[in-house]
């Protein structure tokens, strides 16, 4: 686990859990991870997210979603990295797989999906794609 890039850790943990057909995976709790997981849940990529409290920061228990033993998540990709930040204006926001996927952005309105960013007419840093 890398302390430098928690978003990459989140995506890698979910990707590994899906490839291993796991029912749940544990993600370290943070506000950013929580908001990204909420977007994944609202777009139907994961079944549920629960915060498990412990003495320190806690963890999110992520319930992965499957349909007839096929995962709902086909792919995850980190876009903006610590060495190369990727920013887009609202009229330059990407469509992931022509609208079938979702881009997660960090904007002045918080961490939101590309659909919400288009409605609010805001741009920002593209954190990741999920499809």
Give the helix/strand layout.
Blueprint: H1 6-19, E1 24-28, H2 31-42, E2 46-52, E3 59-64, E4 66-67, E5 70-71, E6 76-78, E7 87-88, E8 102-107, E9 110-113, H3 114-120, E10 124-130
Antiparallel strand pairs: 1-3, 2-3, 4-5, 6-10, 7-10, 8-9, 8-10
Describe the structure.
With about 130 residues, the chain is α+β, with helices and mostly antiparallel strands. It has 3 helices and 10 strands; from the N terminus they run αβαββββββββαβ. The protein has helices at about 5-20, 30-40, 115-120; strands at about 25-30, 45-50, 60-65, 65, 70, 75-80, 85-90, 100-105, 110-115, 125-130. Strands 6, 7, 8, 9 and 10 form a 5-stranded antiparallel sheet that branches. The two termini are about 25 Å apart.
The string of secondary-structure elements, in order, is: HEHEEEEEEEEHE
CATH fold field value of the largest domain: Ribosomal Protein S8, Chain: A, domain 1
Tally of distinct domains = 2
Q: Report the biggest beta sheet as strand number plus sense, adding barrel if it closes.
A: 5 strands, antiparallel
What are the low-pLDDT stretches, counting only 5+ consecutive residues below 50?
Answer: none
Shape: globular
Q: Helix proportion of residues, in percent?
A: 25-40%
CATH architecture of the largest domain, by name, is 2-Layer Sandwich
Would you tell me the structural class of the helices and strands? alpha+beta
In the CATH hierarchy, what is the class of the largest domain?
A: Alpha Beta
Number of helices: 3
Distance between the termini: 24 Å
- Strand tally is 10
Q: Rg to the nearest angstrom?
A: 15 Å
Mean pLDDT: 95
């Amino acid at each position: 686990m890398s302390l430098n890039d928690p978003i990459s850790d989140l995506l890698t943990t979910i990707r590994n859990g899906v490839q291993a057909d796991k029912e749940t995976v544990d993600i370290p709790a943070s506000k950013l991870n929580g908001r990204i997981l909420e977007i994944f849940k609202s777009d139907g990529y994961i079944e549920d997210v629960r915060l498990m409290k412990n003495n320190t920061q806690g963890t999110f228990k992520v319930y992965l979603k499957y349909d007839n033993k096929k995962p709902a998540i086909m792919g995850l990709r980190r876009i903006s990295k610590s060495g190369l930040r990727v920013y887009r204006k609202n009229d330059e926001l990407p469509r992931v797989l022509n609208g079938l996927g979702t881009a997660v952005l960090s904007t002045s309105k918080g961490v939101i999906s590309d659909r919400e960013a288009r409605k609010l007419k805001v741009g920002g840093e593209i954190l990741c794609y999920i499809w």
